[in-house]
């Protein structure tokens, strides 16, 4: 296994910045007044089936930190604006996906556009369901992603499941092809109107050229969500339960602002 050649000083600086950024996200969330709006996310790895009301706009700021076997960490950032178009359709624009790799530095990754179309209601129907589509693009990079979103709400409890198919093209002439199959699931309990707790799970497998599958990676861990005023904050930490080359631990936080 290759070891990091980054100096301990650089690594300590990176870790310090990582901790400070995470604390800023969490502190902003905990300072919100105790009120709530609709549309806040209970989960960060699973999408729910509900869509925003027509005319509504929301800004989401994502931060994902991944810890790897070789000691090299990574920050992944996303800034997304979501629009309620109709009662059943929601549109999202990723203004930028970018990242910071320890020992390498900052780099832009892609832009994206997503749409969610709601089919059934998780409260009034037997099960809630929606269809999700996404296109990511950048120089020598293209990704298409489709999801089936399922959800059932039982009083203060919400159960969700996402079935996901991705296809990625990279490199000169987009000649490198990788398929990805994922499943996510979660359960969340509303302790109060402004505080929720739960558990999330993620399973994923990459398929080179849609022919050769890698080992499946499975993750799970706790989450929590706080809501107040025009803001909400949701976070989850997942540990890998399998032995693959994927991160041993990943922490994702999303801060949403109703505009």
Give a written overview of the molecule.
With 259 residues, the protein is mostly beta strands. It has a single domain, classed as Beta Barrel (Porin), CATH 2.40.160.40. 9% of the residues lie in helices and 60% in strands. It contains one helix and 13 strands; from the N terminus they run αβββββββββββββ. The chain has a twelve-stranded antiparallel beta barrel. The longest helix is centred in the first third of the chain and has 23 residues, at 8-30. It is globular and about 45 Å long.
Global Rg: 19 Å
Number of helices, where a helix is a run of at least 4 consecutive DSSP H or I residues: 1
Question: How much helix is in the residues?
Answer: under 10%
- Give the strand order of the largest sheet, numbering strands 1, 2, ... along the chain: 1-2-3-4-5-6-7-8-9-11-12-13
CATH homologous superfamily descriptor: monomeric porin ompg
Terminal residue distance: 47 Å
**Strand content bin:** over 45%
Major sheet size, sense and barrel closure: 12 strands, antiparallel, barrel
Topology pattern, helix = H, strand = E = HEEEEEEEEEEEEE
What sort of overall outline do the alpha carbons produce when their principal axes are compared? globular
Q: CATH fold name, please?
A: Porin
| Mean pLDDT value | 88
Q: What is the β-strand count?
A: 13
